[in-house]
Amino acid sequence: MGLVPRHTAAVGCSLPQVEFYFYYGCPWTYFAFTRLRETALRTGAAIAWKPILIDHVRRALPDGGGSHGAPAPYRARYQAKDMADWARFCGVRVDRPGPYPVAAGAAVRGAAHAIAAGRGAAYGEAVFGACFRDGADIDDVEVVVGLAGAAGLEPAALRAAMSGEGGLQAAARWSAELVARGGFGSPTMFVGDDMYFGNDRMPLVEVALHGAGERPFVAPGAHGRT
Predict the structure, then answer these.
(1) With contact defined as beta carbons under 8 Å apart, do 213 and 44 qualify?
(2) Which of 60, 126, 157, 189 is 20 to 30 A from 22 in CA distance terms?
(3) CATH number of the 17-212 domain
(4) What is the per-residue pLDDT for 73?
């Protein structure tokens, strides 16, 4: 018998869900965003998009989110290679130099509107691509409004939504919610009450989603396990 995940579906329910807490200005989150959409397709899962304000999260943590100083040169060299490897693996371009995270206030302002319109994935694809592929300033309202068409949104409606505080208030709520659940950064994923942090945890997320649904799943290396 293959690996048996801890998660079980509710009676009569076959659609698992993953909650995705994320920040638009992080390249590692871009990788996770790309991979999570593929994972959702394979598992039949729904994604609950929950964009956050990374500064809100850090301020809410006792240690401010840990050290964010410049890494040692040897570590920085490997991080650059690692990022290039992940970008190639995910089939995306990350041409924008650090430091990271990138300011993304305008993108966050428009996110709740896009999610409510059912365009959260398309909006995220447009924003992440503009930021890391094209080097666009996603903290600029005009730049983000210019992405409306690619996201399947009406520019005027997006601009109107960004002029209010609704988007920031929603992101602030999700940021506080993440910290209350034990989270501390982006990307963070929840399947039920189980938390997974980081792009490299995606295989574990996929196993959890299979368990939360009704599809059998055998993890690599688990064949023949009883």
Answers:
(1) yes
(2) 157
(3) 3.40.30.10
(4) 83
Distance CA 226, CA 222 (A): 9
Residue 83 tokens read as: 């990022």
d(CA 88, CA 97): 16
pTM of this prediction?
0.85
Give the whole-angstrom CA distance, residue 111 versus residue 115: 6
What are the pLDDT digits (tens) for 108-152? 999 999 999 999 999 999 999 999 999 999 999 999 999 999 999
Q: How do residues 83-101 score in pLDDT, each as one tens digit? A: 999 999 999 999 988 888 9
Query: Domain residues of the chain, as ranges?
Result: 17-212
Dihedral angle computed from the Cα positions of residues 10, 188, 139 and 66, in that order, rounded to the nearest 10 degrees: 150
Cα atoms in the 13 Å half-sphere on the side-chain side of 204: 12
Max intra-chain CA distance, the chain? 58
> Which among 186, 185, 183, 190 has a CA at the least distance from the CA of 209?
190
Nearest to 108 by CA among 185, 25, 190: 25
